[in-house]
Amino acid sequence: MKPQSLATAIAFALALTACVSAGNPFDWATVRQVEVGMTAIELKELMGQPTRITATGDQELWTWSQVDTSWDLSSTSRVVTFVLRDGVVAEVPNLSESLQ
User: Based on the number of CB atoms within 10 Å of its own CB, is 64 exposed (0-12), middle (13-18) or buried (19 or more)?
Assistant: First the structure.
């Protein structure tokens, strides 16, 4: 097999197994570490940059979202939002134990 053909075959094989991600990746184990009373800086250090921050009245909603799409176009998504008041985490979500 010619080197160019081999490179093309390898690239094609890698493309078939590829997964495309959008958003800001996070995992549920990290989400469970967030506690009421953490500062916005502590939250960002733990979770990374939020996908979106929305101000509503006296609070901010910090949201992380992630969508993974595989080669067969199946996808999985996850979203988590924390409520901050005066720059401090005021509410954390109650997560199901089934979320891994």
Answer: buried
Determine the residue type at 47.
Answer: M
Cα angle for residues 36, 78, 98 (degrees, 5° grid): 75
Tokens of 64: 């992380």
Q: Which amino acid is at 28?
A: W
Residue 46: which pLDDT band, with cuts at 50, 70 and 90?
very high
Please state the pTM of the whole predicted model: 0.72
User: 50 pLDDT exceeds 60?
Assistant: yes
Token duo for residue 92: 């954390």
Tokens of 83: 């409520």
**pLDDT tens digits for range 63-78:** 999 887 776 677 788 8
Strands (E), the chain: 19-23, 52-56, 59-70, 75-85, 88-91
The domains located in the chain, with CATH, are 19-91 (3.30.1450)
